[in-house]
Design goal:
about 375 residues; alpha/beta; Metallo-beta-lactamase, Chain A; 7-stranded mixed beta sheet; 14 strands; binds zinc ion; RibonucZ/Hydroxyglut_hydro; hydrolase activity; Metallo-B-lactamas
């Protein structure tokens, strides 16, 4: 009964905060950025079902119990080849070598994807390389301002080893506030591009939203990205719901050697701004790419599905639709001349909760403990507010 009263009080407070925020925002903020097809509203009618889903869902495996296999990277290992390659470092953090230059996407190295480091989604694994060990970076690309993509501590540490920071409109203001020299920062509107000695970076549309607090909803732009070197062309979806923009991007800039498409943190309740795996696969087909690397998974628990579910679902779908998938371990090279690293690494650390095995039951118990911690954190993140 006490719990129910707490939930009701919490919900009433949430309603008050949403109402006050909207009122304050309307009075004080500049015109928000918008999507091209679907407006994403987080009114009461959408928050209540999401709150209920978080309350009612029994989690089995929100996070891996066993260590996530990593392939440690160093500058020595990276310099063993100069060929174009992609290395997943975590979630949507991607290191890429094109024509001998390094590009880093959505660098998140902090322990938690959160406004604070004492609460919020905690990473499942370390980065396979530290910021200190990274080689000199030609360009950092940021997709949008959510905490699982824009990490203040990482930006502060990267400022000295990065030549250019490329962001959607207004996101660059965070970077300069955190100490990056404004001369290093280029902000782009959708379809605008920048050329850096043979490397072309184009901001393309995405269907998402932005904000790092309660009062800054959609005050900065979000984007997907085309990254074109002399030999290879890559598409990165950023965070996005499924929309017609993917076909437009394919027609204007396809075919791509590789697509890196968000495949994780999805739910029917917020599918306007995060794709279900079936939609991720369709986005890959729409942009006209040869090989798909599913990203936005494997590092943080940001939704209600099991941590490994995105890998399992996209792997099955790719087989059904004859799509070539690359699911490298974190730190493992996907060579662009032959981008096939379809490792089923997550299967080695998947847990079957229905087993009689004593060791596995012990793991389930640990998962329950983890689950409690994660559930606590989730209260602050209801509505998928910051991902
Ligand atoms: Zn995200
Ligand atoms: Zn996001």
């Amino acid at each position: 009964m006490k719990i129910l009263a707490g939930v009701i009080v919490g919900f009433v407070m949430l309603v008050a905060i949403v109402w006050l925020t909207k009122t304050w925002s309307a009075a004080n903020k500049s015109k928000p950025f918008t999507n091209s097809e679907k407006a994403y509203q987080t009114g009461l009618s959408s928050l209540w079902p999401i709150a209920k889903a978080y309350w009612n869902t029994q989690r089995q495996a929100p996070a891996p119990v066993n260590a996530v296999p990593l392939m440690t990277l160093t500058q020595d290992i990276l310099s063993q080849t100069h060929d174009d390659a992609i290395y997943r470092l975590g979630h949507s953090t991607i290191l890429m070598r094109l024509d001998g230059e390094y590009v880093l996407i959505d660098p998140v190295f902090s322990e938690r994807a959160s406004p604070v480091q004492w609460a919020g989604p905690k990473r499942f694994h370390e980065s396979p390389i530290s910021i200190a060990d990274l080689p000199a970076i030609k360009a950092v690309i940021i997709s949008h301002d959510h905490y699982d993509h824009l990490d203040k501590a990482a930006i502060e540490q990267l400022a000295d080893k990065v030549q250019h920071f490329i962001t959607p409109l207004k996101v660059g203001e965070y970077l300069t506030a955190w100490g990056v020299d404004p001369i290093q920062v280029t902000e782009l509107e959708w379809w605008q591009s920048v050329e850096l000695n043979g490397l072309t970076i184009i901001a393309t549309p995405a269907q998402h939203f932005s904000g790092r607090g309660l009062l800054d909803r959609d005050q900065t732009l979000w984007a997907s990205w085309v990254i074109q070197g002399l030999q290879h062309k890559i598409f990165y979806s950023g965070d996005s719901g499924y929309f017609g923009g993917f076909k437009d991007i394919g027609e204007r800039y396809g075919p791509f050697d590789v697509s890196m498409i968000e495949t994780g943190a999805y739910n029917e309740l917020w599918s306007d701004i995060h794709m279900l795996p079936e939609q991720s696969l369709q986005a890959h087909i729409d942009v006209n790419a040869k090989v798909m690397i599913p990203v936005h998974n494997g590092t943080f628990d940001l939704a209600l599905h099991d941590w490994f579910e995105p890998f399992e679902r996209i792997n099955k779908l790719a087989k059904q639709h004859h799509v070539t998938l690359a699911t490298p371990k974190f730190g493992q090279a996907v060579m662009l001349a032959n981008p096939q690293a379809n490792e089923l690494w997550w299967r080695d650390i998947m847990i079957n909760p229905a087993t009689d095995d004593v060791e596995q039951q012990d793991n389930v118990r640990k998962m329950d403990e983890l689950n409690e911690v994660v559930t606590d954190h989730k209260i602050a993140y209801v509505g998928n507010s910051f991902t």
